[in-house]
Design a protein that fits this description.
Pfam families: Actin. The protein is an alpha+beta fold. It is built from 14 helices and 23 strands. The protein has two domains: 188 residues, ATPase, nucleotide binding domain (Nucleotidyltransferase, domain 5, 2-Layer Sandwich), CATH 3.30.420; 128 residues, Actin, Chain A, domain 4, CATH 3.90.640.10. The strands form seven sheets. The chain has a six-stranded mixed sheet, with helices on both faces. Strands 13, 14, 15, 16, 21 and 22 form a six-stranded mixed sheet that branches. The structure holds adenosine-5'-triphosphate (ATP).
């Protein structure tokens, strides 16, 4: 695929195109991640429907035996007994019933009531196993009854979003950091690598740090009102109380705490500039590092008003991403066997043909919401420049956080609206003739 078309601004109607016998229909693009499910019309520049992948569920109610609570409003509402779950594990679907329900909900009624009239392009990670791929196409044709379907690699789509069909895509998601080499719009399988050092890992690092430093983590739903207090002074807040049996579940509490941890990542956490490990990280106390690491520090206020200035800690909690021996103690992946991001990039490049290497190094794309950490792209730049001292190494990361969050969706939107893409759709008729295995032959 070459010759990418410009994407429409969101205030312009989506382009329609001819599918099959001449009906003009917009394709739907669905990018299901561990944190968010992004859905919208091909040809648009942002997904119109973005819902959390976490959902609430009450067991033992209604005739189906369970009731789902999907979408920002519903999943955040306090309901006694409501568990909060996620259908994904390691970036791929683990609970098909929940995933199908969420995907449908992301599309109808948010985008259209007529799901069966729109071709559907979905994204998948490069490590999605064949049985999951077949199950996905089966859901598309048999549950959603779509007229045509395509399963596109998220890495390839993220490359397209930056106008690259050849390059190296570094995607920092919730479950994983993945590094995907692509060439002419196809993934180079032997170079696809990943490590469980994404946003969930970072949340665990922050939790571990708060626990070790006795920093109380409150969640927004727990606080009815608060008074401003000085830095480090105990919170003066009125907390919500619950009658016995009315308390939210532990999974709801953790989900709400995760919101605060994400706020901490957005506002306070920072990545050491590198190259090489954070100074003094393995040699506490860290006073020596304080002087080098932004001595002013950064204040973070918890939902109950408790606030602290964070100094070198905010670098220390992120360092495990690049240098796993620096992980804080937590239920972690094994720091001795888990590759850090530097190692991942080296592993991905190791088997790339020499002629291609230079082109790939010249087109490194950073994407995923987890990459929005302060200093992340600077560190990647520094590490890559140190590891590959070639004159033409170029690292690109969209300055616009929306593009970084939605890159895979946006690439899918571009792909599905290309004129030449028509021939790639798998039609319902082809699916009926060949069965779900057609996904292996047609969606490379
Ligand atoms: N500004 C930010 N800085 C750092 N991390 C962030 C920021 N905003 C969101 N995150 C984290 O990014 C992660 C979600 O990233 P993203 O939306 O790319 O994942 P996903 O595509 O849903 O997941 P996956 O790719 O694992 O399936 C979450 O862990 C979230 O806490």
């Amino acid at each position: 695929m070459s010759g990418l078309q410009p994407v429409l601004p969101s205030n312009q109607a989506p382009s329609t195109f001819e599918y099959g016998g001449g009906d003009e229909i917009s394709a739907i693009v669905l990018d299901p991640g561990t944190s968010w499910i992004r859905a919208g019309f091909a040809g648009e520049d942002t997904p119109k429907s973005v819902i959390p992948s976490d959902y609430g569920v009450l067991e033992g109610v209604e005739e189906k035996g369970k009731k789902y609570f999907i979408g920002d409003n519903d999943v955040h509402s306090i309901r006694p007994g409501m568990e909060v779950r996620n259908p994904m594990s390691d970036g791929i679907v683990a609970d098909w019933e929940a995933a199908t329900t969420l995907w449908r909900e992301a599309i109808t009624p948010r985008l259209t009531m007529a799901l069966s009239e729109h071709p559907l392009l979905m994204t998948e990670p490069s490590w999605n196993p064949p049985k999951n791929r077949e199950k996905t196409i089966e859901i598309a044709f048999e549950d959603f009854d779509v007229p045509a379907f395509y399963l596109a690699k998220a890495g390839v789509c993220a490359g397209f979003a930056s106008g690259k069909s050849t390059g190296l895509v570094i995607d920092v998601g919730a479950s994983n950091i993945s590094v995907t080499p692509i060439h002419d719009g196809l993934v180079l399988r032997k170079g696809c690598v990943r490590s469980p050092l994404g946003g969930e890992f970072l949340s665990n690092q922050i939790r571990a740090y708060f626990e070790s430093a006795n920093i109380p983590l409150s969640a927004h739903y727990q606080v009815l009102s608060k008074t401003a207090v000085e830095v480090g002074k105990p919170a003066e807040a009125t907390y919500r109380t619950f009658a016995p049996g009315e308390e939210p579940t532990e999974s709801y509490k953790r989900f709400q705490e995760e919101r605060v941890l994400t706020e901490f990542k957005e506002c306070t956490a920072q990545v050491w500039v590198g190259p090489g490990p954070l100074p003094g990280n393995n040699n506490p106390p860290l006073e020596a590092a304080h002087a080098i690491l932004s001595p002013g520090g950064r204040t973070f206020e918890f939902p109950d008003g408790y606030n602290l200035v964070f100094n070198s800690e905010r670098f220390r909690i992120t360092e495990g991403i690049f240098h796993p021996p620096s992980m804080l103690t937590a239920p972690n992946p094994d720091p001795n066997t888990t590759p850090g991001l530097n190692q991942l990039i080296a592993n991905a490049m190791k088997d790339i043909d020499v002629e291609l290497r230079q082109m790939i190094l010249n087109n490194i794309v950073i994407t995923g919401a987890g990459s929005l950490l302060y200093g992340f792209t600077d560190r990647v730049n520094a590490e890559i420049a140190a590891a590959f001292p070639a004159p033409r190494v170029r690292v690109m990361a969209a300055g616009n956080s929306v593009e970084r969050r939605y890159a895979s969706w946006l690439g899918g939107s571009i792909l599905a609206s290309l004129g030449a893409f028509h021939q790639l759709w798998v039609s319902k008729k082809e699916y009926e003739e060949h069965g779900p295995n057609i996904v292996e032959k047609r969606c490379k």
